[in-house]
Amino acid sequence: MKEKHLILFIFAVLALNSCSQKNKTRIPIVNLITKSESFDEFSKLFYSDSLFQLNRIIFPLENDKKIEKEYTSALRGSDNIEMHKKNNYHPYNKNNWVFLNNAYFKNNDSIAIIEGITYKRRFHKTNKFIEEYLIYADDEFVMVKLKFKSINGKWYLIDYVDGFAN
């Protein structure tokens, strides 16, 4: 029964595509029946194409929402607003985002020496998301955390915590 519905759907799409005007762009059937993109393919593009990267980030990031909430709460409960303004915290957005590059790492669980310091790159995968960590190799201290989530079959960066910025 499901096969008949799929076949009817494909024929309907073909009929609609054939009725379109010549100056309109046709939508290939393959794009209409979307599969989930692989994280590995997404990752290659994410770290090599700055425009792709920027379009696959959901702003505001989770950590920025959390910090903004804490900051707003602190402002409400404080008499010294100037002290909180000196914090100079600015959430990430499309205008201040710096392109992330993983050129030092060749595979998922790899080790790289960057400016004389050894780092490890690790991934933690669940059914809902994938977290990527950049860790000091000596003491296993997490320096960078990226959190990716699949939404409608496409991967997006939803959180980024940079321990180097502190």
Characterise the protein shown here.
By secondary structure, the chain is α+β, with helices and mostly antiparallel strands. The chain contains six helices and five strands, in the order H-H-H-H-H-H-E-E-E-E-E. The protein has helices at residues 2-18, 29-32, 39-46, 50-55, 62-76, 81-85; strands at residues 111-114, 117-125, 129-136, 142-151, 154-162. The chain has a five-stranded antiparallel beta sheet with strand order 1-2-3-4-5. Strand 3 and strand 4 form a beta hairpin. The N and C termini lie far apart (58 Å). Residues 2-24 have low confidence and may be disordered.
From the structure above, extract its key features:
five-stranded antiparallel β-sheet, about 35% helix, 6 helices, globular
Count of runs of 4 or more consecutive helical residues: 6
Structural class: alpha+beta
Strand segment count: 5
Which bin fits the share of residues in helices? 25-40%
Write down the overall mean pLDDT: 79
| Span between termini | 58 Å
Strand order of the largest sheet: 1-2-3-4-5
Unreliable residue runs = 2-24
Residue share in β-strands? 15-25%
Largest β sheet strand count, sense and barrel closure: 5 strands, antiparallel
**Shape estimate:** globular
CA-based gyration radius: 22 Å
Q: Can you write the helix and strand succession as a string?
A: HHHHHHEEEEE
